[in-house]
From TrEMBL:
PANTHER family: D-GLUTAMATE CYCLASE, MITOCHONDRIAL. Pfam families: D-Glu_cyclase, GLUCM-like_C. GO terms for molecular function: D-glutamate cyclase activity. Gene3D superfamilies: PSTPO5379-like, PSTPO5379-like domain, TON_0340. This is D-glutamate cyclase. One of its GO terms (biological process) is glutamate metabolic process. Signal peptide: none annotated. It comes from Nothobranchius furzeri. InterPro entries: D-Glu_cyclase, GLUCM_C, Putative_hydro-lyase. Belongs to the D-glutamate cyclase family. Residues 321-634 form the D-glutamate cyclase-like C-terminal domain. Keywords: Lyase.
Amino acid sequence: MQQTADLSPAELRLLIRQNDPRIRTTTGLATGYQQANVIILPSLLANDFEAFCRSNPAPLPLLYRSQSGETSCDPLATDADIRSDIPQYCVYEEGQLVKTVSSLQSYSGQSTTGSALQAVKSGSLSDMVSFYLGCSFGFEGKLKETGIPVRNVDQGRNVSMYRTSVPCVPNGVFCCPLVVTMRPVPAGFLDAAVEVTHQNPLAHGAPVHIGDPALLGIPDLSKPDYGEPVAFQPGDVPVFWACGVTAIEAIIHSRPSLAFSHSPGCMFLCDIPDSSIKTLPSESPSTESNPGQTPICLSFSHNPLFYSLVSKSAAASIRLLEEIIIDDPGQRGIRALFVKDELLRSCLALSHSSSVAITTGFPTHYMHSPPDETDGPPGAIAMATMLLSLGKQVTLLTDSRALEMNEAMVTEAVRKGVLKAAIPVVAFEDRGPESALHFLCHHGDPSRPRYDHLVAIERSGRAEDGNYYNMRAINIKHLVDPIDDLFIAAKKIPGITTTGIGDGGNELGMGKVKEKVKTLMPKGDLIACNVPADFAITAGVSNWGGYAVACGLYLLNTCASHQRYLRRGLGLDPAASRAQLQDWSTNLPSVQKEESFLATLVHLGIRSGKTGNLGMEVDGLTFHPTHSEMINRLLDATLEPRT
């Protein structure tokens, strides 16, 4: 007898009609062809459900909506009959699953009442509408062709499906949580898996989450809500795609008088090859002609494990920013500390954050009051205004001695329009061994962090001997509060990532490249910061690193692949749609804003780092032309059209 895996969709549908016992689920069948989730609803609910699909395109990619009472679907398959061509159906009454059946033929009777509502209540398909939705089984063949193991197929199991804590965008009577499928993918194949599935948006497209399932509200991968558990192999990473079973959850939550669906894992087999599915009507246009929009996958957190997606073109633009800021007009040899993609990974982590604490302040001028320098605060404020524009909470951390000065700095930045809105300015003081934990987490509970990202920009960092040194190797510990303790404590708190931005190696966070600093930087053995950050961004001037982060966040905010991943493949609610209409470029640093803010710092008595001059310069470099030209170069790289 011919193996079912070798049969065409039409041949398989015939066997399904005959209740062939070999076909328990459709996973692994009709390789290379699209499969479809099927939902059948009363006509009165059809328009609402179609709008619900359009609002949630990743879990509910609409392939075809039937006419009322129509049992065929000619655009998807010839000689098909939705009443008999699925291995198993679910029957729902008032949102409750009442039974599973192998055929819907018994529901084909015509109503004689003339009332559409009564026809539905009497159990008739005559006034019901069928929705065919794309299914991830449609891309499994392409995964295997690419050499990516499909564990559920290899293990002969139905794919694992999970109800998440992520709410879909509601429409009419329909609202429910997102459901996802999970497939273990070897870490080395993640980019390939993302690219292959991205190319088929009507089979749910690229993943909506990669990494720790708890971030989706999934407590235990061994206990799927639908389907069967799938075993992991060493080196596998859990990858989650939006799932059409979301529509079943929509039935359960909306409680229609009568509804039908496929049984999870028992799909409708289409005659359309998955390679051509992009030609069907869709709100997710093909990017085959624009390979720059293909996403790539990068890890930015190991505790918890978390990956993000960004298009190739946006990643290339952020990498260009990283290359631009490594210019070294002060000839410090800072390029030797460069680590590729630290800017990109930091921006990805910040993009996924909700509450960010930024710290700056390097009291190098210990003979003056205030002792601080002009490098650091401008970059901090540039990052803060972009983060605020993205809806993040932002806090500025400073030394207790500099609290009033930083409050004045923030107030003036808001007045001049440099900073989008006022942000709290707080100090951290060491009051015992648990001080850092209690500062970072509500009631000292590591499961309830106040911040999910800490950024230090041109912030004096603790050396191996416990002291703090400027570039001339002078100890300035008496002017520095132990904010380093927060970065050390954050290493042990799941969900908090850290970034350090520096231009000499003695800044907080640059402990990640400590050995390079010791070997390659003047007096590096003494001054090197001993406290690492997850990401160490090096720049010729630290402010430039802050500007680059702001630009990188803008690029991510305008990257369709990244925004889709942030939203878990769901649409935008009306409030978010209104917010998206604003001109994000106005939140970028500009020559006018940065010059204005530098004048504020000078007014507050803050001096240039290298020379100690009280004037319009940073690290001995005058604002015009050096810093103004750098800002324009970053803006050009950010705003130029991407392909």
